[in-house]
Amino acid sequence: MGRFILHSDLNNFYASVESLYNPEIRNKAVAVVGDEEKRHGIVLAKNYIAKSFGVKTGDTVWEAREKCGKTELVCVKARLDLYLQISRMVKDIYREYSSRVESFGIDEAWIDVSDIASTFAEAKAIADNIRVRVIAEIGLTVSIGVSWNKVFAKLGSDMQKPNATVVITPDNFRDKVWKLPVEDLLYVGRATKKKFERGNINTIGDLAHTDPKYLRLILGKVGLDLWNFANGKDCAEVSRSDAMEKVKSFGNSTTCPVDLVGNDQVKSVIYMLAESVAERMRRKGFYALCVSLWVRDNDLYSFERQMHLPYPTNVSIDIASACYKLFLEYYTWHRDVRSIGVRVTNLTTGEIQCDVFSRISDLERQQRLETTIETLRSRFGYNIIKRGNILMHEDLSILNPHSAPHIIHPVGFFKAK
Amino acid sequence: MKKTYVKVLTEIDENGKKTPRIINFDGVEYVIDRVIDCKRCASMRVGGIGERYTIRIGGKITYIYYEGDKWFVEEK
Domain range holding A233? Predict the structure, then answer.
């Protein structure tokens, strides 16, 4: 029995939701932007009119306005909670067709309809039906790619926008897919594209015709995967919607309202982020053995460094002090700091073994203290109790790492496999 | 057209099924004769997503939306 997989992509998702709720901006250039006061003021999404002026995701608000010239660019503040809620409603529609619905970020999903379709015509009819329902019930348009593998289904959904179904079959993929530029293929980013250019691989067809041994040589195992993708040999399954992904890490990051200019300020932010990470770990009953720190300077250059802890922990003070140590070791202050992220990996649950020099009672005491702080905050609000070093930096005190929803970004395709 | 939230007298049965009975619009009460249909729908005209009830008031067919926990009509 053949496989029939759809990839559905909500067109200009954030901007479309805003236009749905404000009909008066529907025919204007619209950009959804982050909070300018908190310096998240970049374009997160735009509609087709804004796109026609060259507005790109990641532009600063003033850049985007400049591109639109005399035409007014309507900038609306992002409402992530609303987008998450609507994304859930759309995915509930998908789940009426299949139990295998795999999200790829907030606005994309694969749907395996092999159980209810036996030909590409039937799969296309299902895709068309989904499109009609999403417009009628949610008021948004989707582009759907239909194929026998996930990679070509995703390609199909990118080929025609908005509101279209594109079918890629084993008979037509050579005509439809092979002429596309190689960077359209999932997992071909800037670095891979450069390597391909050196080997004169410009289209997906070029990639499909390249000797896999050569690809392995220049890219390693990924080279073989990409060769399989280009030849329609990807056989990754669409995971079941009820399958919970195993938790591999906890993390939180923030862009600060002002650039950080000293170690003290950085320390404060690290502690704040570590508190939120530790709280979530405790709630789920995890301990971590590895801590990573991510730093981005005000030139948008970023790096990540990690270190192992001597014993598994889920208290903020251990996570924060390890991160701060990493910061002191690796940051040279060539520029001021714009964003910081704290992440823990190498997770364990249950019995913890401490080394002979660490006292388990210290860990327990610290856990009790932090749980008490959490209880206070849940009853009286986040600001009821703060670390002393936060109060020394008033500019930073508006940061609340708990207030933002923890968004699930698309996991790497290879990780998802 | 504009989105206008309205006060609605609603009946909820033992299974949780909602039936709008009387709409209070600008202080005037309109009795709903019949609920003809109910389905999830986006209101493209005034913006919003909710359960759209197709209702008959005094022989005229119109819509009323239940969005989140509020009722709205598409005011002409």
Answer: 178-241
